[in-house]
Write the structure tokens for this entry.
Amino acid sequence: MDLFHKNVTDFFEELLKDLNCQPDTRAYIVGIFGKYKKADFDLSKDSLTLLLCQAQTKQDFLTYQKIGDWIFYINSIAPQHLQFASKDYYNSLAQVSYYTCYRLINKQWKLFEQLADELIPLEFQVRKRLESLVF
């Protein structure tokens, strides 16, 4: 694999081209990594539990999505970063967030269901591909 790419999205498209999931789910996951090239979506200083409570109160799709995406991203890139609760707790937050996104859009976009149902194996696949790049 060529390590020199024009941008982050191209890099992850190449890295994840054979990810075991639906094509739209793969494209969404590639988009997650493109989104975090800037700190605009960084939740490292936020309480994810509090954010989830706020999202539940408002039934806020974007906050649910942000929580799921942040946890997916961190668990794939730097799982040791999530250290204030158990890995199962963070995975549950992400799964609940993605499934709620799926429900809030009237189950019209199946990728959120796949992300909720297959979060752990998808994160594992991404992490293994990233680890294979370390020399």
Residues 87-104 form the longest helix (18 residues). Residues 8-131 form one domain.
